[in-house]
Design goal:
By secondary structure, this protein is α+β, with helices and mostly antiparallel strands. The protein has two domains: 77 residues, no CATH class; 244 residues, no CATH class. It is 38% helix and 19% strand. The chain is built from 14 helices and 14 strands. It is elongated and about 110 Å long.
Length: 350
């Protein structure tokens, strides 16, 4: 069979069509029969000179045309550049301190309770400051769980969120001021499990953030090597505001739930305003049913804070039940700058 045209290599997508349009009737018929042999329905076969008659069946013989060198394969399309994954990290606070989101510190998420009084919750609204709604699901968390979570965040701040952070159980326990023994090792595992299996939803203004305190963990029972992962959404809680925690002071009041809760709450305020005993009773999640009992516990906790250097003075007005606290030199440099920042004056009415 005589070919009407010389093989012209064409790398355009419609190369087979262009080749067949240049070919004579015999050439088109030959390729048409080949298309039928490859499975194209004969009743739909046309071998005329019109483009519409050649398009349907030319796809069946494109591969053979390529093999015979009659057309060239189309130029490969450049692959679109894959977007670079955004690295999400916690703020890099200095080594001597820890840091916690303000919405966590100003609520009863990590309650001032003893661990034996825990209960299970399901999307339960937790006491928090005005303007913030906190919903919690899981086994109730206490201040010892906050110690574990704070230390995990402290280690994770040097790693992108979502990646693994490795440490040994013994070193982690020592950083918490605990001995690296079997009982404390089992306590650490139970606390990590509570943090993993619980979730929190925080609404602050228009934004709702739902996350877990831990995204996952892995433990080698032989070497006691730990690997932790934290959800990248945790960074959103920090973007709403966070405060540094004096870790040395916190270690001095370990085992005193109310003092520990007050320590975190006060750390989130540059200049704590007076609040009623009833307000603190609600916000800390205390189990004391009688307010007078809580008031006695509050006085002792405030004394503990003064002894460890977290505050310089405190008083409870016997008439109004307002609690006033002076943090003195305990406020951070950033909080001190906030206090001296000139306040915006309201515009005069015209």
């Amino acid at each position: 069979m005589t070919q009407a045209t010389s093989p012209t290599k064409d790398n355009r997508p419609d190369g087979p069509i262009r080749y067949l349009l240049r070919a004579d009737d015999d050439e088109r018929r030959k390729w048409g029969e080949r298309a039928v042999a490859l499975g194209f329905p004969r009743e739909q076969l046309r071998t005329g000179s019109k483009l519409v008659e050649l398009v349907p069946w030319s796809k069946f013989v494109q591969k053979e045309m390529l093999e015979q060198g009659l057309i060239r394969p189309p130029d490969p399309k450049p692959e679109p550049e894959k977007p670079t994954a955004k690295i999400i990290q916690l703020p890099l606070w200095p080594e001597p301190v820890h840091a916690v989101p303000n919405d966590v510190l100003r609520s009863a998420l990590f309650a001032a309770i003893q661990g034996k009084t825990r209960r299970f919750m399901k999307m339960e609204i937790i006491a928090s400051v005005e303007g913030v709604t906190v919903k919690f699901t899981g086994e109730q968390l206490d201040q010892s769980d906050l110690d574990v979570w704070e230390q995990a965040l402290h280690l994770m701040r040097q790693h992108p969120l979502g990646t693994e952070c490795s440490f040994t159980g013994g070193s982690f326990l020592r950083l918490l001021g605990r001995a690296a023994g079997k009982n404390n090792y089992e306590w650490l595992k139970s606390s990590l499990n509570r943090l993993l299996s619980s979730s929190v939803e925080i609404t602050n203004g228009r934004k709702i953030v739902g996350t877990k305190f831990l995204a996952g963990y892995e433990i080698d029972e032989i070497t006691r090597a730990f690997k932790l992962t934290i959800d990248p959404k945790m960074a959103k809680l920090y973007s709403a505001g966070w405060s540094v925690i004096d870790w040395e002071q916190r270690q001095k009041i370990r085992g005193k739930p109310l003092a520990l809760w007050l320590h975190g709450d006060l750390a989130s305020h540059a200049e704590p305003f007076p609040r009623k005993v009833e307000t603190l009773h609600r916000l800390c999640g205390s189990k004391d049913k009688l307010l007078r009992n809580f008031k006695r516990a509050l006085q002792k906790a405030l004394g503990d804070l003064k002894a460890c250097g977290a505050i310089t003075d405190w008083k409870i007005d016997p008439t109004t039940n307002l609690v006033s606290v002076d943090r003195g030199a305990a406020i951070t440099d950033s909080q001190r700058r906030h206090l001296v920042k000139p306040k915006r004056q309201p515009k005069p009415k015209t």
